[in-house]
Amino acid sequence: MKTTTYLRFSLLIPFAVWGVCLLVIMATSAISMDQFVPEMPENISMGVAVFFSSYVIGIIFWIFPYILLASILFFSTFISQARTALKLFALSPLAMTLLTLATVIIISLSSSGTTDQGFSTFLMFVVGLVMIWGYICVGIGYGIYRLLQRRGRIRDEEIVQSRPQPA
After folding, report:
1. 19-46: string of b/e by CB count within 10 Å (b at 16+)?
2. Which pTM does this prediction carry?
3. The pLDDT of residue 79 is above 90
4. Furthest-apart CA pair in the chain: how many Å?
5. Cβ neighbours of residue 22 under 8 Å, at least 6 residues apart?
6. What is the pLDDT of residues 36-50, one digit of tens each?
């Protein structure tokens, strides 16, 4: 597999993470939290639950920006070199944050027409959540990339340089 092919497949990672988060939430609601995480303090387990729930419910806000960003990244892998595409993918959480913020602002202004004091706090929460989850997904993708690279499943495209042949 080539690096660019892997990058195209890696665009599915946020959906896979979303599915895992959904499964964790469903499992924790089916099992009491005491049985599921017996050693964790209540603050941490509630934080994890809020984190996962925010991502799962937040699909309302991130699905359209992500589809736009994933489309751009997908097509960029056809026109750019693997090294450039890797850099674009590494910076994609920044672009995703901006796109998600724009979506949240548009949705809130179209529904209420105004914003209040708590809205800026909500926007900061969205920025933090999108950046954290974005870099978690990039980290997962990069970790899998390095693992597959070590096992020989991904080969880097080599630049063929023309050397003068001795006469």
Report:
1. eebeebbeebeeeeeeeeeeeeeeeebe
2. 0.76
3. yes
4. 79
5. 56
6. 555 556 666 677 777
